[in-house]
Design a protein that fits this description.
The chain is mostly beta strands and 313 residues long. The protein is 3% helix and 44% strand. The chain has a four-stranded antiparallel sheet, with no helix packed on it. Strands 5-6-7-8 form a four-stranded antiparallel sheet, with no helix packed on it.
Length: 313
């Protein structure tokens, strides 16, 4: 299991629960551990522990819990193909689906016997998607998630930590041991190795065509040739990095453990590191009212854009 998951104690949150046991209402859901967030049109949808799904229609200023979620398992990743249709994944290889912007969810897949969580999900269209997780677990669907099939990508049982895509080269999967997998478009994958042997927790395709990947001990790498070569970017931190987002104008933000927030105004070629005063681990970042919305151990919080107040990277 990844140190990020271990550091946040995801595998030790309460006793195991049945995948079909519905999430309980909680007035503190938006202040509990949230692990990922996505835009559903103008809405922000965030997911986390105990099957919590929370929604904001005012760019993170206020939150409410989804009406119905068919699991209390920890949810680790979320993705929306459009304003209405979205998927979330989590422990027990669970996949849940919403077709109303995150208000309500249905169970599409669960496999307790695999003893492996799904960690990330991405959809090319409302019908074709991929979910990845621990021990090389990769599931694919071509019918909007009504059926999921297990696929073999030759990952040698490496943990598959994050899936992302570019318009030019298809799907990438960030894995452990300094490995990234890139889809070939014909169902096959090629293995790309970085000049670094540590785990990679995620990646981000930028508007200028470049790719960033990030992971353990503050490592960030940038590629301008779709992963054929990589250059390391100095970050000024040794904290593991977990989530990222690009805002208009080439602004890039990466968040990580111990309240780490990296900001870049030059498309990820350089970063300025800062630390949130609470030092709680951060897992995801989105645009928000007045700047950014940060997600993590303390739930969702609004933060000023560090690039709005000062020039430079």
């Amino acid at each position: 299991m990844s140190p990020v998951v271990l550091a946040l104690a995801l595998l030790m949150i309460g006793a195991p629960t049945a995948a079909e046991e519905a999430a309980a209402p909680s007035r503190l859901a938006a202040a509990s551990l949230l692990l990922d967030a996505a835009a559903a049109g103008d809405r922000i949808v965030a997911v986390g522990e105990r099957g919590h799904v929370v929604l904001s229609d005012d760019r993170g200023q206020s939150w409410r819990q989804a009406r119905s979620v068919p699991t209390r398992q920890t949810l680790t990743g979320v993705f929306f193909a459009d304003a209405q249709r979205g998927w979330a994944v989590g422990h027990d290889a669970i996949v849940i689906h919403s077709d109303d912007g995150g208000e309500s969810w249905t169970l599409q897949h669960a496999a307790l016997e695999l003893e492996a969580p799904l960690l990330s999900v991405w959809f090319e269209s409302p019908t074709r998607g991929i979910a990845v997780g621990a021990f090389g677990l990769r599931l694919e669907t071509s019918d909007g998630g009504r059926t999921w099939r297990r696929a073999d990508d030759g990952s040698d049982d490496l943990h598959l930590n994050g899936v992302f895509a570019t318009s030019a080269a298809g799907v990438f999967v960030a894995a452990e041991a300094g490995v990234i997998y890139r889809s070939q478009g014909d169902g096959s994958w090629i293995r790309l190795e970085l000049p670094y042997a540590g785990s990679l927790w995620g990646g981000l395709a930028l508007g200028d065509g470049a790719i960033l990947v990030f992971g353990m001990r503050g490592h960030v790498f940038r590629s301008e040739d779709l992963g054929s070569s990589w250059s390391e970017v100095e970050t000024g931190t040794d904290q593991s990095l977990v989530g990222a987002a690009e805002l208009p104008g080439g602004k890039v933000y990466i968040v990580g453990l111990s309240g780490t927030l990296l900001s870049s105004s030059d498309g990820g070629r350089s970063f300025r590191a800062s630390t949130r005063p609470h030092r709680r681990s951060l897992t995801a970042v989105t645009p928000g009212a007045g700047g950014l919305v940060l997600f993590g151990e303390g739930g969702a919080e609004l933060a000023l854009d560090p690039l709005a107040a000062s020039p430079g990277p």
